[in-house]
């Protein structure tokens, strides 16, 4: 058996922490009332998304995103990931993932814990490396 290409080896802080989780299913967040008065101050809506993020790390948005917007995102993502490897490598952590992914944070820069260890207080700064192509991305 051959050795694994070292570029596929994630740094320890980026490796998954394995645990078995059982639940009813992926949280669904209905955003159809997003345009209603007081939506963003609605503590129930905030709590639902907060609980989904802390328990699952993600959630599925349902209702409220127009189909043409989803199609625009899919089209831009396809153009982005169809680029040559050299161009895509400009937007990575310089570690090859087993999947193609681009990390974009809401705040730029974003301060993150350097590791998932509870007693580690070290912080690292993530800076977005937004691609220039496609321009609609």
From TrEMBL:
GO terms for molecular function: metal ion binding; oxidoreductase activity. SUPFAM superfamilies: Clavaminate synthase-like. Residues 26-94 form the Non-haem dioxygenase N-terminal domain. It holds the Pfam family DIOX_N. The keyword Protein transport does not apply. Keywords: Iron, Metal-binding, Oxidoreductase. InterPro entries: DIOX_N (IPR026992), IPNS-like_sf (IPR027443). Gene3D superfamilies: B-lactam Antibiotic, Isopenicillin N Synthase, Chain. PANTHER family: 2OG-FE(II) OXYGENASE FAMILY, PUTATIVE (AFU_ORTHOLOGUE AFUA_2G00750)-RELATED, OXIDOREDUCTASE, 2OG-FE II OXYGENASE FAMILY PROTEIN. This is Non-haem dioxygenase N-terminal domain-containing protein.
């Amino acid at each position: 058996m051959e050795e694994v290409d070292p570029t596929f080896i994630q740094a320890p802080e980026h490796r998954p922490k394995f645990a078995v989780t059982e639940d009813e299913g992926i949280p669904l967040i209905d955003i159809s009332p997003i345009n209603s008065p007081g939506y963003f101050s609605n503590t129930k809506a905030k709590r639902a998304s907060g609980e989904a993020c802390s328990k699952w790390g993600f959630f599925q948005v349902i209702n409220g995103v127009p189909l043409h917007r989803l199609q625009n995102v899919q089209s831009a993502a396809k153009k982005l990931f169809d680029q040559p490897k050299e161009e895509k490598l400009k937007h990575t952590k310089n570690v090859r993932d087993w999947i193609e992914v681009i990390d974009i944070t809401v705040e730029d820069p974003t301060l993150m814990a350097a590791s998932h260890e509870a007693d580690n207080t070290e912080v690292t700064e993530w800076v977005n490396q937004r691609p220039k192509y496609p321009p609609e991305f």
